[in-house]
Amino acid sequence: MALLSSRLSLLVVYVLAGALIGIVLLHPAVLTIVWLEYRAIQPNVPSLGDFLTDRLLLLVVPRHLHMVIAFAFVGGLIGLGFGLFTRSYLETSRRLRFLSAAHGEQIPEFISGGETAEVEFKSTMRWDLKERNINKGLETVIAKTIAGFFNAHGGRLLIGVADDGTVLGLEADYATLRHPNRDGFERTINDIVTRFLGGDLCPAIQTTFTVIDGKDVCMVLVQPAPRAVYLSEGGKLHFYVRSGNSTRKLDLREAMDYARTRWT
C-alpha cells in the first residue's frame, strides 16, 4: 500500500510540475511564435516584451481562464509522460540491482560446481599471468566464450577464477585499465562484445561482481542470442558454440546447419 502511495505521489508531482511548466513556459513560447508571425505581416507590432506582458495579464481575467486550463492540461500530460518514464526507469534499475546482488551471492556456488556447459572460468580478462604484461589476445578468448554462450543457451563466464576453481581476483586486470575499478572493468567487457560480436548484443549480458577471500570476481551473465552471433577477427567471421564444458569453433557447413536448427 505504501509503495502504491509512493508511486502515485511521484506521478502527482510530475503532473503538477508539468502543469506549472505549461503555464509558465509553454504558453509564453506559443505567444512568442504568434508574435513572430504577426511581426512578419505587421511592422507596427509591439515589442516582444510588451506583447507577452499584455497577453499574459489577460490570464487573470475570468473569461480567459480556459487558456490557463488548456496549457496546464497540456503541460500536465507532458509531466505525466515523464513521470511514467521515470517510474519505469527507477523500477527497472531496482530490479537490476536486486538481480545483480542475487547473482553475486551465487558466484561461490558456481565456482564450487566447476566448469560446465553453462559455466566457464577465466583467470584474467587481458593480463597475461605468464608473460606478466597485457595480452590483447586474451580479450579475443573472452569474446569467443561469450559468443559460444550466445549461440547456445546462455551461460555464466566467471573472470578472476582459475580452471581449478582457485580465486585469483581482478586486481591485475584493474591495473591495466584507464579506470582501475569495477566500472572500468564492466565497460571493457562491453567494449569487447561491441568490437568482436556487435554492440546490439550488449543488452543481452549482465555483469556483476562479488568479493571472495578479499578478491574481486566478475561474473558475466550471457543470455541466449536472438540471432546467430559471429566473432569478427582479422577481417573474417567465425562461429563458436558451447559444447560440453568448452567452446568449439564450427566450420561454415556446421554453422549453417546449427543456425538453421537453433533459430528456426
Average predicted local confidence, pLDDT: 87
* Spatial order of strands in the largest sheet: 1-4-6-5
Query: Radius of gyration, rounded?
Result: 28 Å
- Secondary-structure-based class equals alpha+beta
* Strand and helix order: HHHEEEHEHHEEEEEH
**Whole-number count of domains:** 2
Strand-residue fraction?
15-25%
Largest pleated sheet? 4 strands, mixed
CATH architecture of the largest domain, please?
2-Layer Sandwich
CATH T-level topology of the largest domain = Methyltransferase, Cobalt-precorrin-4 Transmethylase, Domain 2
Report how far apart the termini are: 45 Å
Q: Say how many strands there are.
A: 9
Class of the largest domain in CATH?
Alpha Beta
- Tally the helices: 7
* CATH superfamily grouping of the largest domain: Schlafen, AAA domain
Unreliable stretches = none
Name the helicity range.
40-55%
Query: What general form does the structure show?
Result: elongated
InterPro entries: Schlafen_AlbA_2_dom, Schlafen_AlbA_2_dom_sf
Protein name: ATP-binding protein
GO molecular function: ATP binding
Domain Schlafen AlbA-2: 115-250
